Amino acid sequence: MARRFAPLPPVPDHPALELAVLERWDAERTFDRLREQNQGGPRFSFVDGPITANNAMGVHHAWGRTLKDVFQRYQALRGHELRYQNGFDCQGLWVEVEVEKSLGLNSKRDIEDYGLAEFAARCRERVAEFAEVITQQSRRLGMWMDWDNDYYTFSDTNIEYIWRFLKEVHRRGWLFQGHRSTQWCPRCGTSLSQHEQAGEGNYEELDHPSLYVRFPLKDRPGEALVVWTTTPWTLPANVAAAVRPEAEYGLRDGGWRLAETGEEYDHVVRGEELVGLEYEGPFDELEPQAGVVHRVIPWDEVALDEGSGIVHIAPGAGTEDFELSKAHDLPVLVPIDEGGRFYPQYGPFAGMSTGEVEEPVIESLRDRGLLVEAGRITHRYPICWRCRTPLVFRVVDDWFIGVDEVREQLREENRGVEWTPPQYGKRMDDWLANMGDWNISRKRYFGLPLPFYPCSCGQLNLIGSRAELEERAVSGLDQLQELHRPWIDEVLIRCESCGVEVRRIPEVGDAWLDAGIVPFSTLGWESPAYVPGGNATGAARGLTGADLPDLAYWERWFPADWISEMREQIRLWFYSQFFMSVTLVGRSPYRRVLTYEKLLDETGREMHRSWGNAIDANEAFDRMGADVMRWQFCETPPAQNLKFGYGPAREVERRLLTLWNSVSFFVTYANIEDFSPSYDDLRSGPPVVHPLDRWLVARVGQLVTETSAGFDRYWTPAVTRAFDAFVDDLSNWYIRRSRRRFYSFDEAAFRTLWYAVAQGLRVIAPVMPFLADELWRNLVAGACEGAPGSVHLAGWPEAGEVDSALLAEVAELREVVELGRQARAEENVKLRQPLRRASVFGSEAARHHVDEIKEELRVKEVELLDSAPVRFSYKPNLRVLGPRLGPRLPAVKAALETGDFEELGDGRVRAAGQELGPDELLVERAKERGWAHSERFSVRLDLDVDAELEQEGRAYDLIHALNALRKERGLDLTDRIVVTLPSADADLADRHGDWIKAETLAVDLQVDGAALEIEKA
Ligand SMILES: [Zn+2]
Ligand SMILES: [Zn+2]
Question: Residue 511 C-alpha to ligand 1 middle, in angstroms?
Answer without folding.
Answer: 14
